[in-house]
């Protein structure tokens, strides 16, 4: 049997052939890979060779260099004004001032100037290149502002129609169509001419600007609100009473505000509440009182207090003011509070005539002007009803800087020292004498510790906060009105204090003053104090003053004579021994 040829012996040749193919392929890969890398190295981030941007050749250059070449090539175009006409007027527009600029880097990138391994990108570098327009950017805020300036110079602003009130009249403002450059059309025209090689004159057209509030809106506001608002008064009802508001009263609180193409009625609630408050006494009631008018006492009538809800007034007023005549009433929930002291009660006090007056004088000192004047200001107009007691300390209050007082001389331990409210005793003495001759009851008074010769001897009073008071009661059946008046002192004239009381005369008062007795001599005191006040002393004594009561005007009462006994201590001579003492 014949044997087959040994085919396995051919396998080494097959393997060798396959290896050649593999190596051949690898060689080709390496070759083309090297060529590809070389192509990338040559192209890099360069712009394709035949590229132009807005007429400037930038091909074959790296991105940064291409951007610089583009900027240099467009410099003249970017810097030149754009020639335009607006409504027939020549206007040169600076592109930069209008917000137009060129983004050179973006323009180069758009033209293909970027690093890439994309084979298409590499192929385009060697074989491609195209014509592009530069990337133009816009600063919108700058453009809008520039356009507004052009509109202001060459256009006409639109005017909204308006309706306003002037007292009981309606004032109408007619709307007007304006003229302005259309932002989109103007921008498109400027962009087109910005980088042209030989741009012609650009005609910028004005467009109509329609007002937001037109004639129809104005007429609607007139018919629906403004004309009815001034056609007739508005009546406000307050639980049994009414008040009428004329258009001239309330139109200051009304406005028609342009809102989304309409004139919307708007109410100033605070102004309206103020108007209503002027027609009624809002809040707490006001008691009746008595005051001087032209030098004669007169009753000031009481006023009831009316309270209402301003929100309720605000909620209903705009509706009622636009209604036709006969339907213009707004009823409010209100409360009426009566005064505690009525006009009838004030008249029953019968404060009709002057029943006493007394005047004292004081030497010049600014602290006296301040303190006496402030006390008089507070006391003036006090109305003392029958049975009531007046207290100077309660009425005037503590003598403090905050209460309007300053430092002055007062008597303490028989000598003069400085303290707040010095001089108020001048008012106390004057007030005491007016009370004395009005026939009122002396409840509490204290004379000065030593006699002061500008005061009536035995008929004077001092006060000190928290320690010594002047109090007197109105024990007559009539009211008593206290009037005070102060004329300040000057370096060349004395000050004057007058207290006058008004009522119906109930007593005819006379008085007598006895002789001085129990005379005492002053001592000499040496004081080592920086604030020592020297004094030339004088003696002390006792004195008696009698007040006599004679009933008048139908008064059937009888009253015993009233004796006022006063002991004045000596006013010591004061010698200041401290060489640095300051007599303030």
TrEMBL record:
Q: Which UniProt keywords apply?
A: Membrane, Transmembrane, Transmembrane helix
Q: Provide the transmembrane region boundaries.
A: 20-43
Q: Which residues form the YoaR-like putative peptidoglycan binding domain?
A: 94-202, 228-324
The domain of life for this entry's organism is: Bacteria
InterPro entries, per the entry: Glycopeptide_resist_protein, Vancomycin_resist_VanW, YoaR-like_PG-bd
Could you identify this protein by its name?
VanW family protein
Q: Which organism was this protein described from?
A: Nocardioides astragali
Q: What is the lineage of its organism?
A: Bacteria, Bacillati, Actinomycetota, Actinomycetes, Propionibacteriales
């Amino acid at each position: 049997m014949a044997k087959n040829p040994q085919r396995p012996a051919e396998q080494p040749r097959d393997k060798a052939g396959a290896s050649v193919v593999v190596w051949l392929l690898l060689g080709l890969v390496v070759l083309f890979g090297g060529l590809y890398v070389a192509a990338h190295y040559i192209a890099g981030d360069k712009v394709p060779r035949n590229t132009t941007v807005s007429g400037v050749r930038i091909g074959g250059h790296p991105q940064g260099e291409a951007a610089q070449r583009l900027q240099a090539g467009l410099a003249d175009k970017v810097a030149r004004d754009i020639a335009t006409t607006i409504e027939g007027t020549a206007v040169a527009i600076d592109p930069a001032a209008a917000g137009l600029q060129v983004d050179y880097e973006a323009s180069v990138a758009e033209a293909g100037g970027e690093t890439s391994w994309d084979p298409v990108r590499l192929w385009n570098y060697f074989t491609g290149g195209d014509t592009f327009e530069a990337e133009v950017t816009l600063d919108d805020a700058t453009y809008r502002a520039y356009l507004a300036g052009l509109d202001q110079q060459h256009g006409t602003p639109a005017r909204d129609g308006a309706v306003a009130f002037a007292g009981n009249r309606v004032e109408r403002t007619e709307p007007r169509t304006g003229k302005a450059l259309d932002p989109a059309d103007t921008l498109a025209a400027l962009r087109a001419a910005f980088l042209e090689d030989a741009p012609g004159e650009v005609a910028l057209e004005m467009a109509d600007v329609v007002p937001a509030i037109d004639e129809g809106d104005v007429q609607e506001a007139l018919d629906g609100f403004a004309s009815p608002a001034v056609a007739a008064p508005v009546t406000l009802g307050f639980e049994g009473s009414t008040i009428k508001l004329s258009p001239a009263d309330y139109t200051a609180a009304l406005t028609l505000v342009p809102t989304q193409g309409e004139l919307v009625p708007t109410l100033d609630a605070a102004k309206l509440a103020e108007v209503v408050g002027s027609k009624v006494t809002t809040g707490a009631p006001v008691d009746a009182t008595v005051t001087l008018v032209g030098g004669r006492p007169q009753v000031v009538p009481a006023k009831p207090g009316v309270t209402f809800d301003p929100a309720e007034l605000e909620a209903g007023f705009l509706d009622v003011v636009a209604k036709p005549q006969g339907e213009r009433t707004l009823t409010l929930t209100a409360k009426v509070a009566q005064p505690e002291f009525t006009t009838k009660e004030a008249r029953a006090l019968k404060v009709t005539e002057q029943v006493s007056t007394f005047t004292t004088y004081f030497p010049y000192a600014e602290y006296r002007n301040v303190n006496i004047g402030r006390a008089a200001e507070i006391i003036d107009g006090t109305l003392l009803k029958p049975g009531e007691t007046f207290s100077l300390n309660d009425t005037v209050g503590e003598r403090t800087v905050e209460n309007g007082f300053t430092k002055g001389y007062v008597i303490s331990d028989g000598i003069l020292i400085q303290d707040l409210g010095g001089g108020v005793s001048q008012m106390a003495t004057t007030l005491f004498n007016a009370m004395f001759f009005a026939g009122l009851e002396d409840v509490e008074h204290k004379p000065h510790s030593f006699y002061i010769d500008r005061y009536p001897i035995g008929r004077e009073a001092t006060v000190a906060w928290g320690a010594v008071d002047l109090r007197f009661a109105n024990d007559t059946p009539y009211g008593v009105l206290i009037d005070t008046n102060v004329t300040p002192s000057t370096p060349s004239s004395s000050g004057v204090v007058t207290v006058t009381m008004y009522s119906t005369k109930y007593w005819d008062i006379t008085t007598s003053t006895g002789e001085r007795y129990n005379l005492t001599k002053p001592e000499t005191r040496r004081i080592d104090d920086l604030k020592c006040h020297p004094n030339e002393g004088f003696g002390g004594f006792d004195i008696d003053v009698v007040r006599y009561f004679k009933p008048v005007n139908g008064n059937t009462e009888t009253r015993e004579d009233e004796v006022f006994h006063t002991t004045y201590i000596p006013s010591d001579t004061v010698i200041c021994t401290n060489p640095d003492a300051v007599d303030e």
